[in-house]
Structure formats: C-alpha cells, structure tokens
Amino acid sequence: MTETRYDVLGIGNAIVDVLAHADDSFLALWGLSKGGMTLIDADAADQLYDNMGPGIECSGGSAANTIAGLASFGSRCAFVGKVADDQLGKVFAHDIRALGVGFDTQALKDGLSTARCLILVTPDAQRTMSTFLGACTELYPEDIDANTVATAKVTYLEGYLWDPPHAKEAFVKAGKAAKEAGRRVALSLSDPFCVDRHRDDFLDLVNNHVNVLFANEEEIKSLYQVDTFDDALQNVRGHCDIAALTRGDRGSVVVAGDEVHVIDCEAVETVVDTTGAGDAYAAGFLHGLARNKDLYTCGRLGGIAAAEVISHMGARPETSLKTLAEVLGPL
Q1: Looking at residues 252-280, what average pLDDT do you find?
Q2: Is the Cα dihedral 281, 284, 290, 294 positive or negative?
Q3: Which of 4, 69, 90, 101 is most buried by a 10 A CB count?
Q4: Is residue 164 over pLDDT 70?
Q5: Between the CA of residue 14 and those of 119, 152, 160, 246, what are the distances in Å?
Q6: 41 domain residue, yes or no
Q7: What is the mean pLDDT of residues 95-111?
Q8: Total number of domains in the chain
C-alpha cells in the first residue's frame, strides 16, 4: 500500500457562505423551502443577496467544512475543489490553507465566478440555503490526482458533487482510485432533495462502492423511500461497511453489520445555527476512524464537533475540537 500522507482527502464544492438572519415570511416571499438547499443561477444569487439582511461571510462547502473540522481535531487533511481566480476564490484558498490543509486545485482563470451559498437562519436555528455553484461546476476528472488519493486513509465525497456532470466524473475517478489503493471511501448524502434527484445512483454507490455513509434522518428515509427512521435503518444495514446516521437533538445511530450504537447528542446551552452540523459530525467521526477508535467513540467525537458548531453562527469550529475532545474524554 502507498505510504499514508493524509488521514482524509475531501472532494467537494468550494463555496463561500453568506449567513444572515431571516424570518419565515422572508422565506415564503422568496419561495424557499425551509431547511433545504436550492440551486440558483447568478442573477438569482445577486437578487437574493441584495435583499438579505446583514451577513457574515466565511468559507464553506459541505466537504470543505468537514475537512476544516478534521483539521481542528489535528488530522492531516487535503481538499480538492474548484474556485475561480477572483476575490472570493482567493478568500477560500487562504482560509483552508491557513488551517494547515493541502489545497492545490488549479483556479479557474476565465468564465464562472467562485461559488457562494446564501444561508438564511430562522429564529428556530434552521438554515435554508440557496446556492450558486459557479466555478464548482468546472471541477473535472483532471483535477483529481490518483496518486494523492492513494495516500489518504479515507477519501470523503459530498453528494452535491453528483449534480454537475464533470464533477460527477471526478467523483467516480476519485472513488475508483481509492478502492484500487485499498483505501476507504466515505460519502455524505448531503441533502434529501439531492437524494431525490439521484436516488438510483446513490443506491448503487452505497451498495457497491462506499465504505462509510453519512446521512441525516430525512436523507436516509428519502434514499429508501420509507416513512420511518427504523425502516431506513433496517434497509441500510449490510449495504455498506458503516452507516453513521444523525438525528438532530436525538443524537446519532451508527450501524456496522450486527453492531448498532445509539449515541446521545452532546449538551448545548443555546442552539444558534444548525448550519454545518452534519459536516462537523462527519469530521469527528472520520477523525476517530482514522485513529482506529471504536465506532461508539467515533460517534461521540462527531457529536462533540456538531455541538460546537451549532452553538454559534457559521459552519466551522471556533473552538479547538482537539481540546474539546480531550476535555470531554473520547480521545
């Protein structure tokens, strides 16, 4: 096996998030589905941005957020994602490299601008996302270095990559390279609407190509088109090595063969913003997995990371996750 350089290589959409508070009437006015993610074009992004309240800008993207969380735990990480050679692209590249993450994807010189996600947080801490993918859609298989994939214990892929055709090809190339190198492949289902668009493909991935699956309750129910979490749980058993399923304030359930671990959520004084909770959970879980921790401990690490992220605005940790884990005991 190739020498290990990274604990986790993340491949996903390189996005700059803009977060602002909003009420339900604003969502209704703009026809936005609360708690979901909608893909929009550049004009719609400009119009919505102009009408949002004061915002906080920070680098984001689902897999990139997970990689940021892993870096906060002290994991060795790299990220592949496409930005444009513009101001937001430079912000994204600076932010992720400043975390100690390897980021060498060539920036797009002409055409689409760097992606941005406009996130509206309602008083109940739910987040509703409108995403302009921009340069993300220009991620090509040529951006994937199979040799780099082979040096990572886990290659982590976000389901959102299945939307743009070239990014989908890059996704498949990375997964094959990881398998050929004897490494693990992890997948996040990303969003129930994403699952609805690509259900058959995702079922094939889960059944035949993915070692570790991350999904929340709505996503896993959507994947198997069932009404209850228990039915979804029974369907996913045996279809991939490990399924880590999050349930909001009910914690998470981790399934691997005959093993089933039910993990309570970590206490949070005030839930401020649920943006990135699932991304953070995946970070903690993968950090534990890369260190050969038992699955219950992996789930606890995921819960610790998610609790930190939902206690403030923004999808990336503001407190060292390594320090939190040491204080709370799993490490």
Answers
A1: 92
A2: negative
A3: 69
A4: yes
A5: 15, 20, 11, 24
A6: no
A7: 95
A8: 1
Residue range 173-202, pLDDT digits in tens: 999 999 999 999 999 998 888 899 999 999
Inside any domain, residue 238: yes
37-65 pLDDT per residue, tens: 888 999 999 899 899 998 888 888 999 99
- Per the structure, the complete domain to which residue 186 belongs is given by 6-13+61-110+137-328
Is residue 150 domain-resident? Answer: yes
Question: Does residue 32 form part of some domain?
Answer: no
Question: Burial level of 5, CB count in 10 A (0-12/13-18/19+)?
Answer: middle
Q: Using an 8 Å Cβ cutoff, are 223 and 215 in contact?
A: yes
User: What 3-state DSSP class applies to 231?
Assistant: helix
> What is the amino acid identity at position 108?
L
pLDDT reported for residue 9: 98
Q: ∠ CA 118-312-221 to the nearest 5 degrees?
A: 65
Instruction: Sheet with 15-21: list strands edge to edge.
Output: 37-39, 127-132, 115-121, 15-21, 56-60
Half-sphere exposure of 112 (CA within 13 A, CB side): 17
Q: DSSP secondary structure string, 94-142? A: HHHHHTT-B--PPPB-SSSPPEEEEEEE-TTS-EEEEEE-GGGGG--GG
Q: Examine the pLDDT at 83 and tell me if it is beyond 90.
A: yes
Sheet with 6-11, strands from edge to edge, namely 77-80, 6-11, 152-158, 184-188, 212-216, 242-246, 252-256, 259-263
CATH code at position 192: 3.40.1190.20
Are 85 and 116 a contacting pair, CB within 8 Å? no
Q: Tell whether the model's pLDDT for residue 330 goes beyond 80.
A: no
Task: Tell which residue, 187, 240, 246, has the closest CA to residue 221.
Answer: 246
